[in-house]
Design brief:
Layout lengths: L3 E7 L2 E8 L2 E4 H5 L7 H6 L1 H13 L6 E2 L5 E2 L8 E4 L4 H11 L16 E4 L4 E2 L3 E3 L6 E2 L2 E7 L15 E8 L2 E2 L18 H5 L5 E9 L10 E6 L2 E7 L7 H11 L7 E3 L19 E6 L3 E7 L1
Length: 302
C-alpha cells in the first residue's frame, strides 16, 4: 500500500506523519527513529528512510490518528528554499500575450533560453486549510505542481534528475499583482520590478496537503491540474503543457546552486490565473487546487 508523508500539529507540537488510507501514524515512532520527528530530518536521510517508510506502510500499523480533523502544516517545515518557475506553461504564456496585446512568444528552447526561476521565502509557507490575510488589492492564485528534493544535487544530468527527488506536493504561488512594479520608478529602469513585494508576504505559499513519493507517480509530466475559486473552475490544464520539464528545471537549477533535501521547486502555473483577465481574490474566497494522484490544497482568504 502506498503512503504519504505529512506534517501535522500534535499537542506537543509539529510532528511528521505517515498517512496510510485515512489514518496518520507518527513517523518517528513507526520507524523507531526519534530524529524522524520532522519531515526535514526524514528527507535528510531519504535514501534509507524511503525504503523503511514503504515497508512500514505494508505492515500492520497501529495507534494511528484519523486524518479528519487534524491540522496539517506545510509538509516541509520549513523548506531550505522555494524555487518558483516563471512563464512555464504554454497556455498561460499565450493568454498573457493576448492580455498585453503582444505577439505570442516562441518556445524558449528555440531561442536557446534556460528555465527561469525566482525565490519565495520559506517563511511564506502555510499548510492545507490555511487562512491567508488579504493584504493586497490584487491577490491572485497560481496552481503549481511542487517537487520536493530528497538528495543533495549539484550539476545533475537530465537522465538522473529523478534519483534526487523525494516526491511531489501541491503549491499555490499566491501573488500580489499590485506590488509587481514600483510605479515611481521609470518604466525603462531595471529596478522597476519588485519580486519581493509581489511574491513574498505572510501566507504567500500554501503547500500540501502531503508529499506523495516519486514511486507512486508514474508520470509527473502528465497530471491534470485544476483550480477552483468558490467552486468555480479557473484553471483546467495538464502538467504536459510545461515549456521546461521538471527534469530540465532541476538540471538547470543544480547547475547554478546546490539543491538540498527539503528544497521545494514550484514548476509553473497554467492558464486561468487572475492576471489574464483582471479577476482578483476577495475576503471570504476559498481557493481549491487539485492535482491528479496527489490530492487537494485548500486556502481561505480572510
Amino acid at each position: 500500500m502506498t503512503y504519504k508523508l505529512l506534517t501535522y500539529q500534535d499537542r506537543s507540537g509539529p510532528r511528521s506523519g505517515i498517512l496510510v488510507g485515512t489514518t496518520v501514524h507518527d513517523a518517528a515512532k513507526v520507524l523507531g527513529q526519534p530524529a524522524y520527528a520532522s519531515v526535514r530530518a526524514i528527507l535528510d536521510d531519504w535514501q534509507a528512510a524511503s525504503a523503511n517508510l514503504a515497508k512500514a506502510a505494508e505492515g500492520n500499523l497501529t495507534d494511528g490518528i484519523a486524518l479528519a480533523g487534524l491540522e496539517l502544516l506545510p509538509p516541509v517545515r520549513y523548506p531550505g528554499a522555494i524555487y518558483c518557475a516563471g512563464a512555464n506553461y504554454r497556455d498561460h504564456v499565450d493568454n498573457m500575450a493576448r492580455r498585453l496585446n503582444i505577439p505570442p512568444e516562441p518556445d524558449p528552447h528555440e531561442l536557446g533560453l534556460s528555465p527561469w526561476h525566482f525565490i519565495k521565502s520559506s517563511w511564506c509557507a502555510v499548510g492545507d486549510n490555511a487562512k491567508v490575510e488579504l493584504a493586497s488589492d490584487f491577490l491572485d492564485w497560481e496552481a503549481e505542481l511542487a517537487v520536493v528534493m530528497g538528495r543533495v544535487a549539484r550539476n545533475v544530468p537530465l537522465d538522473k534528475v529523478f534519483d534526487y527527488v523525494a516526491g511531489y506536493t501541491i503549491g499555490n504561488d499566491l501573488s500580489a499583482r499590485d506590488r509587481t512594479q514600483r510605479e515611481a520608478v521609470p518604466i525603462a529602469s531595471p529596478f522597476r520590478y519588485d519580486w519581493i513585494g509581489q511574491k513574498n508576504f505572510d501566507g504567500a505559499c500554501p503547500l500540501g496537503p502531503w508529499i506523495v513519493p516519486t514511486s507512486a507517480i508514474r508520470d509527473p509530466q502528465n497530471l491534470t491540474i485544476h483550480t477552483y475559486v468558490n467552486d468555480v473552475v479557473k484553471q483546467d490544464s495538464n502538467t504536459s503543457k510545461m515549456l521546461f520539464s521538471i527534469a530540465e528545471q532541476i538540471a538547470h537549477l543544480s547547475s547554478r546552486i546546490t539543491l538540498h533535501p527539503g528544497d521545494v521547486i514550484l514548476t509553473g502555473t497554467p492558464a486561468g490565473v487572475g492576471a489574464e483577465t483582471g479577476e482578483r481574490l476577495a475576503k471570504g474566497d476559498r481557493v481549491r487546487i487539485e492535482i491528479e494522484n496527489i490530492g487537494k490544497l485548500v486556502t481561505d482568504i480572510v
